[in-house]
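Re: the 386-residue chain
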Amino acid sequence: MSKILWACWDGGGNLPPSLGIGRALCVRGHEVLFAGRPEMIGRVRAAGLAARELTQAYALVDRFGWHPLPRVFGYLGSPAVGDELISVAREEAPDLVVIDAMFGAALDVAPSFRTPTAVVVHSFVRRMFDAWKGNLMRQSEGRAQAGFGRLAPIEELWGGRDLVHANTLAALDGAGTTPLANLRHGAPVLLEEKRAVAPVLPWPAGDLSPLVLLSFSTVLEQRSPMMLQRALDALGRLPVHVVATTGDIVDPADLRPPINAAVLRYASHDALMPRAALIVTHGGHGTAMRALRFGVPMVLTPALADDQPFVAAAVQEWGAGRALAKEPSADEIAAAAAAVLGDSRYREAARRLASLLANGDGAELAASAIEGLAPAVGQRPRQRAS
């Protein structure tokens, strides 16, 4: 069995699927070690997986002080983090390395690992290849402005690795093309972390009012109490019950929920979606795919994440929801929610897509793809990172 080092970015839609794949690999007998910034460690260990803190995660953050997201870009693009990953690989001597697709510092030093290496993408690739390219270009420009060397282009950072694995259905990833000969598709990985538990709702069990789930990003950098409040105000006008989850980046006490809403830090979406008539979301790939797996239509209000506008546009293209512009008004949210709730064609479209998502375990498919790199290890002596 193989020892696998996972260089991780723990963004809201990145860590849960990574943990799901890590679990699947461990069940197969592999040893998986996640390496990432301090905020990640507890969540990985709570999932029963091994984690190693990158102590240099913020060593150079002051050099990125000009950036609106200095801690994000100071971690993702830091040469100090890249150097530490080389040291970790030297100490741990992994057989395989997995790198999050957004982790520029790790992608930059990938050739130094001298092992088979996989890049894992947790959203569309063909639909948004130019956006991924732009993300890494922004990291490259940020490094240059901070006084460090630029990153190679995506064609090398991703295309030069042994595998680029996308945790999404090829059938949903559009008809675009990419220059990546190493791109493979699996399926969404929809792991729920242990902190997401089935909630006790305040309404009688026999109450037939439609249930709306309101869930925006759980990434601190996308924290927006204003937008959460605006969405609550909008849904407070409708004859529905609302469950809003804040992901602990917004204190429920800081919100003014309408009488028809319950605001929780965490709640199991898998427990709520069988009852849900509508999801209001920023449009992260994981939340959208989970909604579609349960056949629930959406109203999507993209925020900062690169994939959210593309996911929102795709859901609208499929007829399974309505996409709004960034920062929509309460009137716009209320109108879109009423329209989706009042037209059965949205739910019918979502249910048609549910049949596509019913088959194929994304974690197992990704684990098989990553595991498929392992035979090359047995054909030569293991080499330590240079």
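The radius of gyration is 21 Å.
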